[in-house]
Design goal:
Blueprint (H helix, E strand, L loop, with lengths): L15 H15 L4 H23 L8 H5 L8
């Protein structure tokens, strides 16, 4: 048999009974219609956090000035 847990939740020591109790409490607090919205918001928050942490790891590039990019090129004038 495989000695590794099948779910990452097992790392926290939560079994199926504890997970069911937590889900029932969430249903009582928020109702069935709001749980998908909460899960979506949590997922988006995690995604934004990962994105921000990756951006923080990259070295910052010097910002270009707007005046240089908005000047018309001499060949553009007719």
């Amino acid at each position: 048999m495989n000695s590794l847990p099948a779910l990452p939740i097992a790392i926290l020591g939560l079994g199926p009974t504890e997970l069911i109790v937590i889900l029932v409490i969430l249903l009582l607090l928020f109702g069935g219609s709001k749980l998908p919205g909460l899960a979506k918001g949590l997922g988006q928050s995690i995604k934004e956090f990962k994105k921000a942490s990756k951006e923080g790891d990259e070295p910052e590039k010097p910002a270009e000035t707007k005046s240089a990019s908005t000047k018309p090129k001499p060949s553009d004038k007719n």
